[in-house]
Design goal:
Elements lengths: L8 H5 L1 E7 L1 E2 L11 E2 L6 H18 L5 E8 L7 H14 L2 E11 L6 H10 L3 E7 L3 H6 L6 H14 L2 E8 L6 H14 L3 E6 L7 H7 L8 H17 L4 E3 L2 E3 L6 H7 L3 E5 L4 E6 L2 E7 L3 H11 L3 E6 L2 H12 L8 H8 L5 H9 L3 E3 L5 E3 L7 H9 L1
Parallel strand pairs: 1-4, 1-11, 2-3, 4-5, 5-6, 6-7, 7-8
Antiparallel strand pairs: 8-10, 9-10, 12-13, 13-14, 15-16
Helix pairs in contact: 2-3, 3-4, 7-9, 12-13
Amino acid sequence: MTAPGPDHPTRDAGFGVYLHWPFCAAKCPYCDFNSHVRHGGIDEPRYLDAFRAEIAHVADRTPGRTVTSIFLGGGTPSLMQPATVAGLLDAVARHWPVAPDAEITLEANPSSVEAGRFRGYRAAGVNRVSLGVQALDDAALRSLGRLHDVAQALDAIRVAQAVFARTSFDLIYARSGQTPALWRAELREALAYAAEHLSLYQLTIEPGTPFHGLAAAGRLVIPDDETGRALYDVTQELCGQAGLPAYEISNHARPGAESRHNLLYWRYGEYAGIGPGAHGRLVTDTGRLGTVTERSPEAWLARVERDGHGVVETETLSGADQADEFLVMGLRLAEGIDPARYAALKGRPLNGNRIGMLVGDGLLERRPGGRIAASARGAPVLNAVVAELAA
């Protein structure tokens, strides 16, 4: 199997490895991620062996790559022992060359942050940490099902910043009862602690979650669309003033501090998805593949031990599929997309009249080099913009 050609989008975006650790200390009521609570403990050495096997399997399909970023997500990767993290990173480096400046991120929850463990992660090779703070309000943290309070969150931020040169943390807004004034005060506090990067997500009610049931029963009411838009506007205003403008719909960073791994996703690069429920996008000599692994941790483990991998779905993406994904992902970025790349994937260009109409309506902007990007007015209604372009 050959490496992707120099004209493929992967070459511009790099090659990433996503490692999914699916275990959490508790399941949050808003979360629809593939995360699981196992009170009986986790056999980390056994899971590490399975990760090693799946890494080897994917590496056999992707020769000639150099890893530019690794992301340990979950779940709660900070529940892992540092030795397990070291084993995962060593396995990646055994099968692919890793760029000297590769970004290696680990997600952590404040309730599982210990300075000694963080130093162990750094020694293992982690050079960036993303903390799931979610709120700087104790009542909100309780309602979100979080296991930490504000004091623990701020302590975790301090520990992370003392150990790692690069850090980020997440907040959720548009929570029940939240007003623009309340969010303005909370975000100002967050910005006082943010070193270089913030991920700020608007709460959505996902099917199958406890919040979905509460909302359906009328026991949970989140801000309406008008208030949600006002909260979004506060977010853009304060982050811009603080020097952390949005480089993607929900992500803000000082220039040069953007998450390189997440940029790889949004620029439609290539990445291996390793671990229970992980998704990947691999470019092969037969086309671009979408891969999905078994979601259940125990079923994934059994499958890997039997077959050498846990992949349960492999789909060859058509040019149209790739173009649509490229459009959806790329227009989330402030830098926008190159329409020529869309045309190369789709086999035909975007409709120039539709682009002109959206530019005229103030929803799209033309950028140097022929790029197009969502405007400040278009970003909050991006789904509608994408639907119009893709029609």
